[in-house]
Design brief:
Layout: E1 3-4, H1 14-26, H2 34-47, E2 51-55, H3 58-68, E3 76-80, H4 89-92, E4 97-101, H5 112-115, E5 123-129, H6 138-147, E6 151-155, E7 163-164, E8 167-168, E9 175-179, E10 193-197, H7 200-210, E11 214-215, E12 231-232, H8 248-259, H9 261-278, E13 285-287, E14 301-305, H10 314-325, E15 327-328, H11 340-344, H12 353-361, E16 362-365, H13 373-392
Parallel strand pairs: 1-15, 3-4, 3-5, 5-6, 6-9
Antiparallel strand pairs: 2-10, 7-8, 9-10, 11-12, 13-14, 14-16
Helix pairs in contact: 1-8, 2-8, 9-13, 10-13
The structure holds pyridoxal-5'-phosphate (PLP).
Length: 393
Amino acid sequence: MMIELPAIQTRLNEEEEQAVIRVLREGKTLAAGPEGAAFEQEFAQFIGSEDAVVLSNATAALEAAAILTGLGPDDEVIIPAHTFVSSVVPFARTGATLKWADIDPKTRLISAETIAPLITSRTRILVVVHLYGLTADMDPIMDLAKKHDLVVVEDCAQAPGAKYKGKRVGTFGDFGCFSFHSQKNITTLGEGGMVAVQSKDMGRKVRQLRWMGNWPFEQERQCYWKPAMGNIVEPAPSVWPHNFCLGEVNCAVGRLLIKRLDQINASRQRQAKRFRDALSAVPELVFQEVQDGCEHVYHLMAARFDGSSMNKHRDDLIRQLFDKHDMKCIVQYWPLYRSELFRKFGFESANVPETDRYFDNMISFPWWSDMGNDLVDEMAKRVQRAVEEIRKG
Ligand SMILES: Cc1ncc(COP(=O)(O)O)c(C=O)c1O
């Protein structure tokens, strides 16, 4: 049977399924209700942020960050080219200039060293992506951001619950953006997101942005229907609102999932240790380095393949695994400056040799929660065999 990356990473348990039924049968509303409010509060408490606002997905969370910082055409944004497209488009849409930051070859994430040379007097925002589930080295990054007065947006879509030096990601920057998409470590029924913020004031702005500026009147009124049932407000100066809402059923499931997120991540870490240990005698495969103080919650299991000593390439390994071992591996993330979209918008220029080297040599193995030891061992065995075969061949 072909082993491949599934479209659902974590299945719901019985209690989570029952929560769906409960809200459908007993909930007073299916939109903007008590489940959403409780999910926000519990999420903020879980990660340790001042406030958190539930949204339709992480892309909406990144949009909210880009909009509410008032980013515009005079500004520059430092951002990795090695990430999912959603990390970047919300900032590009404002007309700001994108400055592509390279990755560190060991962690495969951007670092203070790769960011520093890109800072100019026009730099406003720094987008840090905790890609694959590994936390970036935040202390030096935050020192740099403070020194240059930069807004920091953390894209935590792939690293919910991960800690850097004991503190959860999403609480270092001004905005922490989370995804509960079907393919993430936890999912609120396929779509969902959250933005963690550092003040109640910013939380209020995001909430006003989230539902087309609909907001209760703040003054006492004699007739509840005058001048209208509710006010419509400007979320921030010159900002038009959006509809970025998530439903109550999704939020009810999210509330339960954050209670077992640490357990899900711990189980993914055990799987990862087993897989990486089993392949430790295959020097051609180099996994991400997890530096002191950082944590990896293994959203994905990716490695660089170095076959130069046998004159072989990553493509040979992917082909061998697919053709001979029923294993479908993939490649991620196409350096965005090389893609059609960013070239069309004039962002085709970048000096990111490590990003290019990694993408052109990386392999991402099938990975999800609760794989079980037998499957992890079987996968490692197939990979080892495939490498041995291409060594000979
Ligand atoms: C790094 C990263 N950022 C943002 C997103 C966007 O998440 P969503 O699908 O919830 O909008 C994803 C989704 O794959 C992602 O991997």
